[in-house]
Specification:
The chain has helices spanning 17-33, 53-67, 123-129, 150-158, 168-174, 254-263, 279-294, 309-314, 316-331, 335-360, and strands at residues 2-6, 38-42, 72-76, 96-98, 103-107, 110-115, 137-143, 145-146, 165-166, 178-182, 188-192, 195-199, 214-221, 225-233, 238-244, 267-277, 298-308. The chain is of the alpha/beta class. The protein folds into two domains: 2-233, 4-Layer Sandwich (Purple Acid Phosphatase, chain A, domain 2); 238-360, no CATH class. The model has no long low-confidence stretch (mean pLDDT 93). The structure holds manganese (II) ion. Keywords: Hydrolase.
């Protein structure tokens, strides 16, 4: 018996419709090529409860390709499917099952326990719902928050989405061989007692927190359980880069921008710029570089960590410091070192001024 576990498709997410659909098509191909018997989707098929009819239709057609090959499809709703409506209606198709209440499905030597998402549930509620089954291999499916992992806790906490918190004790009490999770958006595989736990992650990165190639998981049960990921890459990753302005000369950054354009494919890029620059020149540079990169399908968001030259001129301490260190820059063979002293010293002075201001308020 071979099962493919995925989750967090977020079909229809604004601005990402095409990218997500390409990733979903990859999963359909993998499902057919890997000879799976069952497809599990652990919630968040659609980005919100009011998915467009055209999109739903397209999704049904894609599921049909699998159902025609005898693949059974099991879906539980996630919090996004049920946001302002229910996106999972009208998916009726032979071989497609959507669960709205706890259900056990026994197939061959495997029991599948489906725990559909409800905002008020906790891990202990799932334990209370679970019925015993005599099958050799017990698999649970839920859309929940395993907050013992710090990255899960902080990501979901930031977006106020710690729904259905699940602890290691809850997982032990559920007494499963495999726990097919959805909700956290990066692939994660770990073990609690005998239970293999997996978040496959979103199928296409949706924010700067969703890093690296995307994965789906194959669960194979013959005499024992074997679990392994298959990488599905991404369409447009989210990347972060720090660059420092060389020697107060914003224009000297341009070769770096050209280099990025050459090295990176289509992506979302967070560029953190450090160094000393004239504010107006820097703003003009951002416009020019942003347009240049956009033409190459690189969407930039700027993080400005520069210190404004204008501020230095007006601040007596900073100005004196700059003049003193610039003298060293000119005279010393360790120029790079003294540029660092200059930049860091001035950043520190600027920081102190900001702190002083805050304290006065
Ligand atoms: Mn999600």
């Amino acid at each position: 018996m071979r099962i493919l576990h995925t989750a967090d498709l977020h079909l229809g997410r604004t601005g990402k419709e095409g990218d997500i659909w390409h990733q979903w098509e990859k999963i359909i191909e993998i499902a057919l090529k890997e000879n799976i018997h069952i497809l599990l989707i652990a919630g968040d098929v659609f980005d919100n409860g009011q998915a467009e009819a055209v999109l739903k239709k397209k999704f049904v057609i894609s599921l049909n390709k699998l159902a025609n090959q005898g693949i059974q499809i099991f879906i539980i709703p996630g919090n996004h499917d049920l946001r302002q409506g229910n996106a999972l209606t009208d998916l009726e198709l032979p071989g497609v099952n959507v669960f709205y209440k706890y259900t056990v499905v026994n197939l061959d030597k495997i029991a599948l326990h489906f725990f559909p998402f409800k905002p008020e549930l906790s891990g202990q509620d799932l334990v209370g719902l679970k019925q015993d089954s005599g099958a050799e291999c017990q698999i649970g499916v839920c859309h929940a928050s395993y907050i013992t992992l710090p990255e899960v806790f902080s990501d979901l906490g930031d977006s106020q989405a710690i729904h259905c918190p699940l602890s290691p004790e809850d997982i032990r009490d559920l007494n499963l061989d495999y726990l097919a999770l959805g909700h956290y958006h990066n692939p994660k595989q770990w073990q609690v007692g005998k239970t293999q736990c997996v978040y496959p992650g979103s199928i296409e990165p949706l924010s700067f927190k969703e890093i690296g190639p995307r994965q789906v998981f194959i669960i194979q049960y013959d005499h024992g359980l074997r679990v392994y990921p298959i990488e599905i890459g991404y369409q447009r990753p989210y990347l972060c880069q720090d660059i420092q302005i060389p020697k107060e000369d914003i224009h000297a950054l341009w070769p770096k921008i050209e280099e990025l354009a050459q090295d990176l494919g289509p992506c979302f890029l967070r560029l953190t710029i450090k160094g000393v620059a004239d504010k107006l020149l820097f703003q003009a540079f951002q416009l020019k570089a942003g347009a240049f990169l956009k033409e190459r399908a690189i969407e930039v968001s700027w993080q400005d960590e520069t210190v404004d030259l204008g501020w230095i001129e007006e601040n007596r301490l900073a100005k004196q410091f700059k003049e003193a260190v610039q003298h060293r820059v000119r005279q010393s063979p360790e120029k790079e070192f003294w540029w660092q002293v200059l930049y860091r010293g001035i950043s520190l002075l600027k920081h102190c001024e900001n702190v002083d201001k805050k304290n006065k308020v």
